[in-house]
C-alpha cells in the first residue's frame, strides 16, 4: 500500500516549500522520486484499461455468468484497493511541481556542499596559520641558544653575556668540545629548517670543526666523527655525514676571518653548508631517515691554545635563508 500523500492539483503546495515537512531533504528527495515513478506507472496503465473495455464492451458481452461474477468480484476488490491508495489521475501541474521541488532540493544540497567546502577551507587556513606561528616560535626559541657550560671541556672558556664566544684557554694541544644548550628538533611540522654559523676569530692551527650531534657528549675530548648521528664541517675541507667522511673541494676550507654555516632543510632532509654567505655544492648530502624525528645538538671543537670562535644562532646570518 502506498504511503504517499494525495494531491488533487499543484496549487495545494508551493514547489519551494517542503511537501513532506517532517522529512529531511534527502528523505523527501527519495519520496518524490518514488512518487514520480508511481505517476508514470499510472499513466502507462490507462491504455490497457481502455483496451479491455473495447474488447469486451461496456456491458460485459461475450462473457458467461461465471466469468461475469468473477469479474464483478475482482472489480469490487479493485475498488476497495483504490480507496486505500491515492488517485491515479495524473496532473501535469502536479508532476511539474514535484520536479521543481526536486530541483530546489538539489540546489539546497549544492549550496550546503559549497558552504561545507568553505568551512573546511577556513579550518585548513587556520591550521596553516597555527603551524606557521608554531614554527616561528620554535625558530625564535632557537635564536636564544648559547653554549652550555655543563657540556664544555675544562680547557675551553665560554665568553660574553650571551655565551656565544668559545676560547681555547689552555696551552694543551688537543681537540676540545662544547655543546649548545638547546637542541634542534628535526620535525617538519615544527620548523622548516635549522641553521647556524660560526665566525673564526683567531686560529693558531689549521684545524677546527663544528656541526651537530644526536646527543650532548659527556666525553668532550673532541667529537665522535666516526659515529652515527654526527654531521660536521671540518676546516681542512672535510664534511662528515652521519659518521662518514666526505671529501669536498679544497676551496671550502676555512680559517681566520671566515664565517661558515651548517644546517638542514627538514622536508627534504637536505644538508646545508655555507662559506661567507655562499652555499656550497653539497646537495647530495642528506640526513639519515632514522633521525628524521630526532634532536640534534650544535657543537664546536677547538684544537690549540688561543683558538676562538663566535656562534650566531640567528636571525641575522651572512647566508640568506630566503634562498632555500
Task: Please describe the structure with a list of short key phrases separated by commas or semicolons.
single chain; 324 residues; alpha+beta; Jelly Rolls; 2 domains; eight-stranded antiparallel β-sheet; seven-stranded antiparallel β-sheet; 15 strands; disordered N terminus; B30.2/SPRY; SPRY_dom; B30.2/SPRY_sf; B30.2/SPRY domain-containing protein
Task: Provide the fold topology.
Blueprint: H1 25-56, H2 65-84, H3 92-143, E1 147-152, E2 156-159, E3 165-168, E4 176-180, E5 184-185, E6 193-202, E7 208-213, E8 230-234, E9 238-241, E10 244-247, E11 259-265, E12 270-275, E13 278-279, E14 295-302, E15 308-312
Antiparallel strand pairs: 1-4, 2-3, 3-15, 4-14, 5-14, 6-11, 6-15, 7-8, 7-14, 8-9, 9-10, 11-12, 12-13
Helix pairs in contact: 1-3
CATH homologous superfamily caption of the largest domain: SPRY domain
Number of helical segments with 4 or more residues: 3
**Mean pLDDT across every amino acid position:** 75
| Count of domains | 2
- The portion of residues forming beta strands comes to 15-25%
Helix and strand content put the structural class at alpha+beta
The tally of strands reads 15
Shape: rod-shaped
Structure characterization notes:
The structure is a single chain. By secondary structure, the chain is of the alpha+beta class. It has two domains: 107 residues, no CATH class; 180 residues, SPRY domain (Jelly Rolls), CATH 2.60.120. It has three helices and 15 strands. Strands 1, 4, 5, 7, 8, 9, 10 and 14 form an eight-stranded antiparallel sheet that branches. A seven-stranded antiparallel sheet has the order 2-3-15-6-11-12-13, with no helix packed on it. Helix 1 runs antiparallel to helix 3. The longest helix has 52 residues. The N terminus is likely disordered. This is B30.2/SPRY domain-containing protein. InterPro entries: B30.2/SPRY, B30.2/SPRY_sf, ConA-like_dom_sf, Gid1/RanBPM/SPLA_SPRY, SPRY_dom. Pfam families: SPRY.
Amino acid at each position: 500500500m502506498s504511503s504517499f500523500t494525495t494531491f488533487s492539483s499543484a496549487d495545494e503546495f508551493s514547489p519551494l516549500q517542503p511537501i513532506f515537512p517532517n522529512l529531511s531533504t534527502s528523505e523527501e528527495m527519495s519520496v518524490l522520486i518514488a512518487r514520480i515513478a508511481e505517476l508514470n506507472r499510472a499513466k502507462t496503465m490507462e491504455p490497457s484499461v481502455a483496451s479491455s473495455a473495447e474488447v469486451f464492451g461496456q456491458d460485459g458481452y461475450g462473457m458467461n455468468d461465471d466469468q461475469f461474477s468473477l469479474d464483478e468480484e475482482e472489480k469490487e476488490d479493485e475498488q476497495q484497493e483504490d480507496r486505500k491508495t491515492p488517485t491515479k489521475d495524473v496532473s501535469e501541474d502536479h508532476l511539474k511541481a514535484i520536479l521543481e521541488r526536486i530541483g530546489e532540493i538539489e540546489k539546497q544540497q549544492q549550496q550546503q556542499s559549497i558552504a561545507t567546502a568553505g568551512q573546511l577551507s577556513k579550518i585548513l587556513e587556520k591550521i596553516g596559520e597555527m603551524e606557521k606561528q608554531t614554527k616561528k616560535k620554535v625558530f625564535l626559541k632557537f635564536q636564544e641558544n648559547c653554549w652550555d657550560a655543563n657540556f664544555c671541556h675544562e680547557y675551553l672558556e665560554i665568553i660574553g653575556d650571551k655565551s656565544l664566544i668559545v676560547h681555547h684557554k689552555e696551552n694543551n694541544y688537543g681537540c676540545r668540545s662544547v655543546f649548545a644548550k638547546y637542541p634542534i628538533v628535526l620535525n617538519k611540522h615544527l620548523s622548516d629548517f635549522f641553521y647556524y654559523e660560526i665566525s673564526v676569530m683567531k686560529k693558531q692551527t689549521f684545524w677546527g670543526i663544528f656541526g651537530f650531534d644526536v646527543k650532548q657528549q659527556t666525553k668532550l675530548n673532541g667529537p665522535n666523527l666516526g659515529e652515527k648521528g654526527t654531521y660536521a664541517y671540518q676546516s681542512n675541507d672535510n664534511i662528515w655525514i652521519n659518521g662518514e667522511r666526505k671529501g669536498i673541494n679544497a676551496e671550502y676550507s676555512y680559517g681566520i676571518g671566515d664565517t661558515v654555516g651548517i644546517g638542514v632543510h627538514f622536508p627534504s632532509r637536505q644538508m646545508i653548508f655555507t662559506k661567507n654567505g655562499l652555499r656550497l655544492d653539497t646537495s647530495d648530502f642528506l640526513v639519515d631517515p632514522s633521525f628524521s624525528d630526532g634532536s640534534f645538538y650544535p657543537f664546536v671543537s677547538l684544537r690549540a691554545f688561543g683558538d676562538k670562535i663566535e656562534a650566531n644562532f640567528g636571525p641575522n646570518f651572512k647566508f640568506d635563508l630566503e634562498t632555500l
